[in-house]
Write a structure and sequence with these properties.
alpha/beta; Rossmann fold; 2 domains; 5-stranded parallel beta sheet; 16 helices; 10 strands; globular
Length: about 375
């Protein structure tokens, strides 16, 4: 690649490092971390944020929906993209849902993206734990359908680095090197190992425990549903981000009926991505009997989930129409991934940081609800 040797003056340890930077990335300013839910997307954001801040003199924007990104940060035309070159630093943001402004930024050369994927069955049961939802609720909200929609969107875009969750966990150093190269940076494996160690499972667990203590000291009721999505404003780690169990834990967490539903919805995707599809040959007879008894109920649940996912996409273009349809059908509004950054002084960052996702109207009392005193 066309490389330039740059002296890294931002190393917090005071070490003098030489870093190769790909000069062909001069026009690119935004890096979108759009990974699948619960698939190391936050880890990618941490690593990319670290690289952008240290080597590219950039900044983190936090979690942004496509609508917010389009309104505040994205140039509206190719002419604006070229006119903006040289006037902005690099920026990194996290999101999950696809949006046409993301597609436009990637196709125009204004942005790069990184995407991580995982066995969707593990994603589902990890989401259930983190969001405090039952399987049926997750399905009716359309989140399982949305996972597939998001996956198709990000894989169809240009300039996207796709990484597999299991490989990120098994070899994080190589994953860091891949992320750096995607940004046009030629970091050494030694530096990559230092970064991987800084954002290891143990290091992030320490950060999560520190956030939990800050919230508890502030009197926040962590059992309240509205507080499940409070996160650190820098790393975007939530206080309940990690859970026991690893890859394949869905096998012990799920019921047979749930596995059948997931196979109907995600079986083709699982096989295409190298994951074993359920059920095995020995369970085919049981599946046939199950389908004949409650197939209609499952079809209805899948249809409701598909509709909810469709309305979520429509809301990005026609929010009033989508909201009206939800009201007519008696469906609750659901933000697919609400994020409530929490600053060290005990206030939600969304209230005073212009780049953070703001706390949604109507949620403030629940988020700030003190823990009940026994």
């Amino acid at each position: 690649m066309a490389r330039q040797l740059r002296l890294d003056r931002n190393d917090p340890t005071g070490k003098r490092r030489l870093v190769f930077v790909d000069s062909r990335h001069a026009r690119i300013h935004d890096v979108i971390c759009g990974g699948m839910y619960r698939a190391c997307s936050t880890w990618q954001y941490e690593v990319v944020g670290h690289l952008v801040e240290r080597h590219l003199r950039g900044e983190r924007l936090g979690y942004l929906t496509g609508e917010v990104y389009a309104a505040r940060f994205a140039p509206c035309s190719r002419r604006e993209v070229h006119a903006d070159v040289g006037r902005r630093s690099w920026r990194v943001l996290k999101s999950h849902e696809g949006h046409r402004c993301f597609a436009r930024a990637l196709s125009s050369g204004q942005a790069l993206a990184v995407y991580a994927y995982r066995d969707i069955r593990d994603v589902v049961f990890s989401l259930m734990h983190k969001r405090g939802l039952a399987f049926e609720e997750l399905l009716r909200q359309g989140l399982i359908h949305q996972i597939l929609v998001n996956d198709r969107f990000w894989r169809a875009q240009r300039r996207v680095l796709v990484q597999r969750y299991e490989e990120l966990v098994a070899d994080p150093v190589t994953a860091v090197v891949q992320l750096a190269r995607h940004l046009g940076l030629g970091v050494t494996r030694r530096e990559a190992a230092e970064i991987a160690d800084d954002f290891s499972l143990e290091s992030n667990q320490t950060r999560i425990e520190a956030l939990r203590r800050r919230l508890e000291n502030a009197g926040i009721d962590l059992t309240a549903p509205g507080n499940l999505q409070i996160c650190d404003p820098v790393t975007l780690l939530h206080w309940n981000h990690l859970r026991p169990g690893g890859t394949g834990s869905w096998q012990t967490d799920s019921r047979f009926s749930q596995r059948i539903l997931l196979d109907r919805l995600c079986g083709t995707w699982l096989q295409a991505n190298g994951y074993t599809s359920e059920p095995e040959t020995a369970a085919l007879a049981e599946k046939a009997g199950y389908a004949s008894e409650v197939g209609l109920r499952d079809d209805l649940a899948l249809a409701v989930g598909r509709l909810a996912s469709l309305l979520r996409r429509v809301a990005g273009h026609c929010p009033r129409t989508a909201k009206r349809v939800r009201q007519l059908l008696g469906m609750a509004d659901s933000d697919p991934e609400p994020v409530f950054p929490w600053t060290s002084d005990g206030t939600p960052a969304g209230w005073d940081l212009p780049h953070a996702t703001r706390v949604r109207a109507g949620n403030e009392p629940e988020i700030l609800a003190p823990r009940p005193v026994s």
